[in-house]
Amino acid sequence: MTHEDVRSRLISKPVAVVAAMSMLLVGAGTATAAAPAAAKATGALGAHVGTATAATPAAAKATGAPVVPAPSSSAPLTNLSHLNFLLDTVPLKPVAGHTTYQLDQQPTAQAPWTYANKNADGSYTRVGGGTQDPATGTWSQGAFNADDIARTAVVYLRHWRQTGDAASREHAFQTLRALTYLQTSSGPNAGNVVLWQQADGTLNPSAIPKELPDPSDSAESYWLARTLWALGEGYAAFQSTDPQFAAFLADRMHLSIDALNRQSLAKYGQFDVADGVKVPAWLITGGADASAEAVLGLAAYAKAAPDDGAVGTALRQLTEGIADMSAGSTRQWPFGAIMPSVTTRSLWHAWGGMAPAAVATAATVLHRPDLLTAAVKDSARFTPQLLAAGGPDNAWSPVPGEAQIAYGADSRVESLVATAKAAHAPGLLDVAAVAAGWFFGANRAGVPTYNPATGTAIDGIETDGRINPNSGAESTIHTLLTMLALDANPALKAKALGITHTVSTVGLSVVEAESGTVTGGSVVKPAGGAWTGEANLSGGAYVALDAGGSVAIPVPAANQPRKVYPIVNQSVAPAGRTAWTFGTIRLGGTPNGGAGDQGVTPTPGILYPFALDRPLPAFGPGSRHGHRAVAGTTEGNSASASTGDPSTRTAAAVVGRSNGPAAIDALLLQPEISSVSVSGSGGNSTLYVSADTRTTVRKVDLPKGFKLQQEAFDSSGRPVAAGHSNNGADHSGRVTVAPGGFTWVTLVRK
């Protein structure tokens, strides 16, 4: 099953459950690994900032995960050996409506197998999608697919352009020929793309199980978007070296744009409604995710051929639509992320997560700095929060808690690099180094996910640290895209290679409502499962309150204030409000009902984390220390007297009292200062991330004989002006973090 098929089922069919998809999203085969060991509280900065969670390398390595030699920053990281292994020769049969460049002279091309299962002896077996018919050798989906062919072409194109490698040029040429054969060249579906192809070259427009659209070239799709990506980068690469082939790619680019102009782009300037919010109606398959990958190709083409009006117009229109999907703020979920789909406002996912990279790249090509804001918010505000919450999870739905794959990790790295360049925001490269560390061991399994000696990449890491050791096309492709980005940026590469272990993360946490004491209500576990049609109920249950009912939810102690987001399954009909308190402190209220018009979403109402007005004060041991807000404010870390002595309490309750029927799923807690502590050959470092509206100072334990080297950046990733931070060396252990910004701190000897 492709990730696009997973997405279509998640978004359009209420029977799908995001929580059940994690193994699908990490590829074929059985994941094998042990759960990570308990968190360590020593070894890097941030260990005393709050409750830390971490994975230790020993736990995962003990399961038989391969030991990967430490790569050298002087040697190329990009190794195409495994991708070359995945490639196969595919016959291109004469079929009405399907042809390609020089088909008469070259009746074959190249395409990558979809999956590669790891064998007991360490070798790999190439497999297709679905099940194989032993009699015919065909697969229920196919051996090759347009998505992976397109992205494989992008890898070879970028490698050729970076290194001049002749073999990569030939592989790029052949995979582009295979891809354009899948594109329907005539008839009512001209410009659209068939997804699957069997090993003997036979097209499979209708896979089993059925995928949408069906047949796969009957409407626009992810694979159409990715075809545009490859065509655009292909045209830019071959424009001067092979003008005849470049002209063919340009013709195919316009064929696809014509299809878009008949389909989604025909609605440019129109808006739909999603739970009461306006959303653009002209995105490819209704998604910023798919549209972003098209924009990457359109931008490459437009840069090479700036006078091509049709491409420039499509680029501008799609980029505007993607930027319109920016949501939230520093203190409102999803914290500036570009949401992937118009059909849900409460599910962010990392597959198809290139939106910030696409917007940043297109804003430069289009000379539209106004569009860059969406990329900056996603990269400088949301992504640091994502990393502090545990890394590049596949989905927040709306709480973090999914598997992690190379696709999501690469999307973060490439987006950070592109936005840093476009916005002149060097701080984003520090965040990119942390994100790239995922490939070298700084992840919840504690093992490298990429082996530069072989070019293999694991297919994913589960929430409990188990790894999927297989190495399919998508994982290989996106890992190599990150390696290419690192090879092209030596300073970033050196910093990323120095990050091989996540010591601790202090970020978003979840407390289930059903863990509390319910009065005037009950705990409900829906018979149909956790999936609402648009998002997931955290823990698979919620608390249903009657009018006048209440729930007292115990929250763990912390030594700093935390922003509180009650997750409410908001109904459409008005149903009053729930008032939230902590002792005698009124935190704010959330709506029980009054959700906007359903519009294009699958179900009425919305499961959403609503921000409360006041933060939860710090309480428990150590709560009197370690956090200070600047600009004449109080420390903000002591609880009300009625809650007891904050220095001794280890738990207390947040209480919600409703004046109408309410459905409360959980509390999402956001520290005012989140952090990611990492270590490796680059030393011990911590990224501190602010959700505060004021400059804050964090006091951390400083070992004798050491000092802090810190670089502070504002909420756009730009350096904080001198005199307003502790940039440089600090001997006191004070870390200064700008409002909504982040600070990169390294422990160095005096």
Regions with little confidence, pLDDT below 50 for 5+ residues = 1-64, 624-647
CATH architecture of the largest domain: Alpha/alpha barrel
Quaternary assembly? single chain
* Strand-pairing-aware structural class: alpha+beta
Mean pLDDT: 88
Give the helix level as a range of percent. 25-40%
Number of domains: 3
What's the N-to-C terminus distance? 54 Å
Main sheet: strands, sense, barrel = 9 strands, antiparallel
| The level-1 CATH class of the largest domain | Mainly Alpha
Please report the total strand number as a whole number: 33
The whole-angstrom Rg is 25 Å
Figure out the total of helices: 16
Explain how this protein is built.
The chain has 750 residues and is an alpha+beta fold. The protein has three domains: 3-506, Glycosyltransferase, CATH 1.50.10; 509-671, Jelly Rolls, CATH 2.60.120.260; 673-749, Immunoglobulin-like (Sandwich), CATH 2.60.40. Helix content is 28%, strand content 22%. Strands 17, 18, 19, 20, 21, 22, 23, 25 and 26 form a nine-stranded antiparallel beta sheet that branches. It has a six-stranded antiparallel beta sheet with strand order 16-27-28-33-30-31, covered by helices on one side. Helix 9 (288-304) runs antiparallel to helix 10. The longest helix has 20 residues, at 243-262. The protein is globular and about 80 Å long. Residues 1-64 and 624-647 have low confidence and may be disordered.
